[in-house]
Amino acid sequence: MHIPTLIEHKRDGGVLTSEEIHYVITAYTRGDMPDYQMSALAMAIFFRDMTTEETAALTEAMLHSGTMLLWNDHDPLRVDKHSTGGIGDKTSLILAPLLACDNLWVPMISGRGLGITGGTLDKLESIPGFRTQLNEVEIHQVIDRIGCVMVGQTAGICPADKKLYALRDVTGTVPSVPLITASIMSKKLAEGLNRLVLDVKWGSGAFMKTQEEAHRLADSLVTVGEAMGVRSSVRLSEMNEPTGESAGNALEVAECVRCLQGQGPQDLEDIVLDLASAVSISTRSDLATKLHSGEAWRKFQQMVEAQGGNVSVLEKMATVHRAPFIGELKATASGRLMRMDAGGIGQAVLELGAGRSKAADAIDYAVGCDQIAKTGTEVQTGDVLLRVHARTKGALFRTLDFLPEYIDIV
Ligand code: URA
């Protein structure tokens, strides 16, 4: 096959065959196809899109570019969720141990945050000692003992996605439905799942800005999942205000601990229970009982310990990572809180140092916002709308000046 001809064919709106797609992905993974050709092809896909069959073939080729987690027939059902990411989206840390209490196995492979959306691995790494880079033997050992494991992509899983995602990130080709679908689903399918729930968000704090875009991505993800034998469902949700009441790594782990102890904010608990019941064999109310009884909290502690984390600090995360400057943003009027904009808060938290602008940036676990008030609440002048945790006094004042533009009280 002649790669320049395949690029031209896609550029002109043609449809690539499964063999052509497998050929390209194999050549790229081996280093036989240079980045400049793959960038041209990714841009052609961005403009010309792909059919459902092409997207499925791309997902399959990326999945088979590396290894998969292998399971035995008599093993418990493997389930997972994928979220397209948002501000304060911390549901994975509660969901994985909750599902493991239901005799399901949750081999969760997660990512790091990039841009304004936080990443599960960064949150977990704020727990002193917690190891997110386990090899495949260690993943199986933790799953066998605990029923859930939360790790980063191993060296063997989907190497094609690792290369292609890094290339897309610097060539303006991230927001393409077929490329996103193949990237997300190849990694999830490599977990060897039976069931998957997709948490697809839209809004100011999400990757997809409109409900229509989110629908299109959700349809594509579910279609590919089902075509590859994984029972897939979707929960579409708005991300115009943060999930829960905190955003920032250690602050979010502290909130997850409260939720696992049955004292989480209602919106966070609702999302967790909705997602869990989509892949579980138990009812939503049985899952709520497991959450409120402390069973999921005990499972979380076992998982943290199995992955090298210090369990004794879990209830003191905000003290272990205490930012030097903490300030309150107060309401300057009385009325109903109508907007607490996720995009604005995400930007503020990123600039405080909790996220990354480039993959190599270091992150500050202590900074972020907490006690974030929920829209719909009646507030009085002087009530605290949120607290800002900053590394420097300058950063604190900049954030307190920046945020009011993203908050409306009517
Ligand atoms: N997350 C992924 O893993 N891949 C994408 O392409 C976008 C988000």
What attributes does this structure have?
410 residues, alpha/beta, Transferase, Pyrimidine Nucleoside Phosphorylase, Chain A, domain 3, Pyrimidine Nucleoside Phosphorylase, Chain A, domain 2, Aldehyde Oxidoreductase, domain 3, 3 domains, three-stranded parallel beta sheet, three-stranded antiparallel beta sheet, binds uracil
Low-confidence stretches: none
**CATH architecture identity of the largest domain:** 3-Layer(aba) Sandwich
State the CATH class of the largest domain. Answer: Alpha Beta
Provide the gyration radius in Å: 21 Å
Structural class: alpha/beta
Percent helix: 40-55%
Enumerate the distinct ligands.
uracil
Describe the structure.
The chain is globular, with a radius of gyration of 21 Å. Helix 5 packs across helix 12 (266-279). It is α/β, with parallel strands linked by helices. The model has no long low-confidence stretch (mean pLDDT 96). The chain has helices at residues 3-11, 18-30, 35-48, 52-63, 92-100, 120-125, 136-146, 159-169, 177-189, 211-227, 249-260, 266-279, 284-292, 295-306, 317-320, 342-354, 393-402, and strands spanning 79-83, 106-110, 148-152, 195-202, 231-238, 325-330, 335-340, 368-370, 378-379, 384-390, 407-409. It has three domains: 3-48, Transferase, Pyrimidine Nucleoside Phosphorylase, Chain C (Transferase, Pyrimidine Nucleoside Phosphorylase, Chain A, domain 3, Up-down Bundle), CATH 1.20.970.10; 79-315, Pyrimidine Nucleoside Phosphorylase, Chain A, domain 2 (3-Layer(aba) Sandwich); 321-409, Pyrimidine nucleoside phosphorylase-like, C-terminal domain (Aldehyde Oxidoreductase, domain 3), CATH 3.90.1170. The protein is built from 17 helices and eleven strands. The strands form four sheets. The chain has a three-stranded parallel sheet with strand order 1-4-5, sandwiched between helices. It has a three-stranded antiparallel sheet with strand order 6-10-8. It has a three-stranded antiparallel sheet with strand order 9-7-11. Bound molecules: uracil.
